[in-house]
Write a structure and sequence with these properties.
This protein is 33% helix and 17% strand. With 332 residues, the protein is α/β, with parallel strands linked by helices. It has a single domain, classed as TIM Barrel, CATH 3.20.20. β2, α2 and β3 form a beta-alpha-beta unit. α1 runs parallel beside α2 and α3 runs parallel beside α5. The longest helix is centred in the middle third of the chain and has 14 residues. It starts with 11 loop residues before the first strand and ends with a helix. The chain binds S-adenosylmethionine (SAM) and iron/sulfur cluster (SF4) (2 copies).
């Protein structure tokens, strides 16, 4: 098995389909900042993505999560899912979306081979939600998208909520309650210092532990033992119905030691960490006609030399003022 310099295997891929988005979340792509999106010719084609995934599958990757930017903005995404579903070795294809095109797309996504879906819901109140996502939006539209995904048979459907102090942290118990009733697993994510455009500050982070304690007071919980060392979410279950709820504690309890994830940006760069400064340009290799063995060799070398553990070194790295790739580019 291919392992990096810290002994971590390569198991999963985050594949960013586009850097564009129909929202402007304050913790990702703040509306007051200017963005230059990638020109179309810079984006990897579906065929090129498939070639990279084939190479990765032969190196041990089993799971692919489609993300972005907003992946449902990429036209004919179903064709890509179909292609990836038939790559030998790929056992699981999932997608993370802001949910705005889900109602119309859920059935086609399922039919093309998508297994699981995660929808980001930052608030249940239109006013708060609109403030977070930088445009007037109705939460009920989102919920209809989630219902459509459940009805289409995508399973499990999960919800991600990024928690920011003073923005939506007062809502964590209400969000947990709401989705508990729907039977949907929620994962609360600590606000991370990804990219360079946000106003991240440690004082805006609510720890996962605090989130779980607040929920547990009203709806008692117990921890679930991790399935394996690469699990990102710390899982709990409600004592009454056994439904899961999770926290992703990149800030307060980093999980770099189990990180088996590679990222491919929409413009064809491989990143070995969400907080990386630079990516490896595999698009250039593809467009010069590299075959699968050559791609595999390059990826092997990249992974073998990997030593990223940004979240464990966060505070010393931040002090160095390091430049980082934006989350909507590298794929959240
Ligand atoms: N556009 C899709 C969405 O919002 O679900 C997929 C891409 S988005 C970058 C993936 C996830 O990253 C979302 O659940 C979002 O809430 C989360 N996210 C974005 N910026 C974040 C930050 N600074 N800290 C923690 N989570 C963040
Ligand atoms: Fe778009 Fe997702 Fe980033 Fe929000 S978090 S701006 S929905 S890519
Ligand atoms: Fe993985 Fe980098 Fe996150 Fe650590 S900081 S868990 S190495 S992506």
């Amino acid at each position: 098995m291919l392992r990096d310099s810290l002994g971590r295997p390569l198991r999963d891929l985050r594949l960013s389909l586009t850097d564009r988005c129909n929202l402007r979340c304050s913790f990702c792509m703040p509306p007051e900042k200017e963005f230059k999106f990638l020109p179309r010719q810079e984006l990897l084609s579906f065929e090129e993505m498939e070639m990279v995934v084939q190479a990765l599958a032969e190196l041990g990757v089993k799971k692919v999560r489609l993300t972005g930017g907003e992946p449902l903005l990429r036209r004919h995404i179903e064709n890509l899912i179909e292609k990836l579903s038939s790559v030998e070795g790929i056992e699981d294809i999932a997608l993370t979306t802001n949910g705005f095109r889900l109602k119309e797309k859920a059935k086609a996504l399922k039919e093309s081979g998508l297994k699981r879906i995660t929808v980001s819901v930052q608030s249940l109140k239109d006013e708060v939600y609109s403030k977070i996502v930088g445009r007037n939006a109705s939460v009920s539209e989102l919920i209809e998208g989630i219902e459509a995904a459940i009805e289409a048979g995508l399973s499990p459907v999960k919800v991600n909520t990024t928690v920011v102090k003073g923005l939506n942290d007062e809502e964590v118990v209400d969000i947990a309650k709401f989705f508990k009733k729907m039977g949907v697993i929620v994962r609360f994510i600590e606000y991370m210092d990804v990219g360079t455009l946000t106003d991240w500050d440690i004082s805006k982070v609510v720890s996962g532990r605090e989130i779980i304690e607040r929920i547990g007071v009203q709806m008692p919980l117990e921890p679930i033992p991790p399935k394996d060392g690469s699990e990102v979410s710390k899982r709990f279950r409600y004592l009454d119905d056994g439904l899961e709820v999770g926290i992703i504690t990149s800030i307060t309890q980093p999980f770099c030691r189990g990180c088996s994830r590679l990222r491919l940006s929409a413009d064809g760069k491989l990143y070995t960490c969400l907080f990386a400064q630079e990516g490896f340009d595999i698009k250039e290799m593809l467009r010069k006609g590299a075959d699968r063995e050559t791609l595999k060799e390059a990826i092997k070398n990249l992974w073998k030399s990997r030593k990223d553990r940004y979240s464990e070194e966060r505070f010393s790295k931040r002090a160095e003022g390091s430049k980082k790739v934006e989350m909507f580019r590298v794929g959240g």
